[in-house]
Specification:
By secondary structure, the chain is of the alpha/beta class. It has one domain (6-276): TIM Barrel (Alpha-Beta Barrel). The protein is built from eleven helices and ten strands. The longest helix is centred in the last third of the chain and has 16 residues, at 261-276. The chain is globular. The site of NADP nicotinamide-adenine-dinucleotide phosphate has 28 residues, from α9.
């Protein structure tokens, strides 16, 4: 059994480490999710925009894992933010994922052309119908998040945002903690760029861990944070789960925290450029 810790919010119980699946498609996605489930992942993150829900669903169906032991998230594309489109597209996601429900449904990005109240009412309806267990948002600044929370009857459990040492999200995290939500950290390795950091490398040597493990440990040592690193080979998948047998000191966490618009922007740009290559 892999050691795992959980965060809890409004009845949701979420493994602190999940698998991100952006940029995994086709057989590579099927193989990666299958391996991940095999080595102990019980939290998978996908989205309508990733064009891989069918392969994620197939891997889950073929795995030796009970559906109720898995925390599965998908995200409504911003272009489906209108009431009817949320309902229709989520039902289509469920069909592709080959599952009667998702544990968490997020709106992927705010859509300035659709009132968030409309999106949230549709999500409430999906919860009433038992097709969605928890709801949330992604890439929402605080004022938008507050609006969404006011509009939804169902508690919003998370905001999924970029979160790594160069983007520590202090204010958003503080807000989530005060409001008893959790923060889902995407690109927690800063798309690999944080692994080169001198302090990360020094601590990796000191703890006999890999740079990825130091960066992910930094993230999950924050209260009410879960992370969804994307990895493709078995070695990386295993490594990213093995985070619960060491602890950084408070001053090491501080040393690694290097809020930098330049570095976080560069990490996102490098990711986009590698997509184009
Ligand atoms: P990430 O997880 O920070 O970084 C992924 C990169 O790190 C890949 O190149 C991966 O390479 C490498 N890597 C993973 N584990 C490693 C290890 N142990 N050692 C060395 N390298 C390692 O970046 P991300 O893919 O942008 O973010 C993760 C997930 O967050 C996405 O898959 C997606 O689910 C979610 N996300 C959400 C949004 C949103 O708008 N809500 C935006 C971006 C991402 P290999 O593949 O070769 O292992």
């Amino acid at each position: 059994m892999v050691e795992m810790e959980y965060v809890e919010a409004y009845g949701a119980r979420v493994p602190k480490v999940g698998l991100g699946t952006w940029q995994l498609t086709g057989e590579e996605c099927y193989e990666t999710v299958s391996t991940a489930l095999d080595v102990g992942y019980r939290h998978i993150d996908t989205a309508q925009l990733y064009d891989n829900e069918t392969e994620v669903g197939r891997a889950i169906a073929d795995a030796d894992v009970d559906r109720e032991d898995l925390f599965l998230t998908t995200k409504v594309s911003p272009r489906n933010a209108g009431y009817d489109d949320v309902i229709r597209s989520t039902k289509e996601s469920l069909e592709r994922l080959d599952t009667p429900y998702v544990d968490l449904l997020l709106l992927h990005w705010p859509n300035p052309l659709v009132s968030v109240g409309e999106t949230m009412r549709a999500m409430d309806r999906l919860v009433e119908q038992g097709l969605v267990y928890n709801i949330g948002v992604s890439n929402f600044p605080k004022v938008f998040l507050e609006r969404a929370r006011e509009a939804a009857e169902t508690p919003i459990v998370t905001n999924q945002v970029q979160f790594h040492p160069y983007k520590p999200q202090r204010r958003m995290l503080g807000y989530c903690q005060r409001e008893e939500m959790f923060l889902t950290g995407y690109s927690p390795l800063a798309r690999g760029t944080a692994l080169e950091d001198d302090d990360v490398q020094r601590l990796a040597e000191a703890y006999d861990k890999t740079p990825a493990q130091i960066v992910l440990r930094w993230a999950i040592q924050h209260r009410d944070v879960v992370v969804i690193p994307k990895a493709s080979g078995e070695a990386h998948l295993r490594e990213n789960l093995e985070l619960f047998d060491f602890k950084l000191t408070r001053s090491e966490v501080e040393e690694l925290t290097k809020s930098s618009l330049l570095r976080s922007g560069k990490a996102m740009l490098d990711g986009m450029l590698s997509e184009l290559r």
